[in-house]
Amino acid sequence: MKRSSGVRLCATAAAGVLSLALITGCSDGGSGDGEKGSAKALSAAELKDLVIAKGEVPGFKVEAVKGGIPDKSKVEAEDSRCDPLLRALTAIAPGEPAEQTSRMATEDKKDPTDDATSLDDLADGKFEEALNKSMDLDVTVVTLASYDGDGAEKALKSVSDAVRACSGGFTGEQDGEKGKFTKVAEEKSSGTGDASVAFTATNAGSDEGAMPLHGEVVRHGNTLATYSTVNIGAMMSKKPYTVSAPVIKAQAAKLK
User: Fold this and answer.
1) Which residue, 43, 51, 191, 199, shows the most beta carbons closer than 10 Å to its own?
2) Is the pLDDT of residue 12 over 60?
3) Rounded distance, CA 76 to CA 62, Å?
């Protein structure tokens, strides 16, 4: 059997981390260095050279973000304090970056249905099981953004503050579609960069029950790396997952 529609469905849905965010360890920004007031943002060309590219993340396919990143003006929380958090979940760079660029990294796993030659081979409930396994893929959107002055520190702090202020949950909207998160929790960050904030936001508005989404924002000087990860298969099977560590490792290495 050819690669099932399950993987394509996963890639399509997860590529829209933006809309999925609505339907499905933390640190402050740090004090920075003495030159932060005069720090200059990287150019668009420099960011494109620094963002992860094809072949640079072992076990992942890296490509352009399908559908692109949404306009931040169309992604808003009912409580404005939660805007930076909701936007980070949709891979939107926080604050007011001078330049930004994004990539999508999809875990490259063998489709369990590849060895089947017909639907009969996957009868008696095995097809559904195989489909769920085929969707058990981490899909991470990485957005690199560069800031002038202390913009990166302020932007990171806005996300950190939002994680704390919105821990009891919040309602958000993207392109007129509303969704509700029941809770937000701080997570242990990757420890890369100069400062970072990692978090989980749980959406319980789906027929599948509680669906956690994971994000992390890391500051490397006056550049922020925003990571947003979904795994539809893990959500459906209630299997824990996190922001893809290989993606963070590869991106952090390029920012050193």
Assistant:
1) 199
2) no
3) 28
Q: Residue 77: which H helix or E strand, with range?
A: strand 75-77
Which pair of structure tokens corresponds to residue 57?
Answer: 């993340």
Cβ atoms of 129 and 166 closer than 8 Å: no
**172 SS3 class:** strand
**CA neighbor of 104 nearest in space, from 172, 239, 13, 173:** 13
First to last CA, the chain: 44
Polymer length of the chain: 256
Helices then strands, each counted (H, E), the chain: 8, 9
Write out the two tokens for 111: 């489709």
Closest by Cα among 31, 42, 110, 39 to 254: 42
Q: What is the pLDDT of residue 1?
A: 36
Provide the whole-model pTM: 0.82
Please state at what angle helix 5-15 crosses helix 126-134, rounded to 10 degrees.
Answer: 40
Three-state DSSP class for residue 165: helix
Query: Which helix H or strand E contains 95, and what residues bound it?
Result: none
- The first and second tokens of residue 225, run together, are 């790396």
Task: Answer positive or negative: Cα dihedral of 168, 31, 245, 228.
Answer: positive
Question: What are the backbone dihedrals phi and psi of residue 192, each rounded to the nearest 5 degrees, phi first?
Answer: -90, 165
Over residues 39-46, mean pLDDT: 93
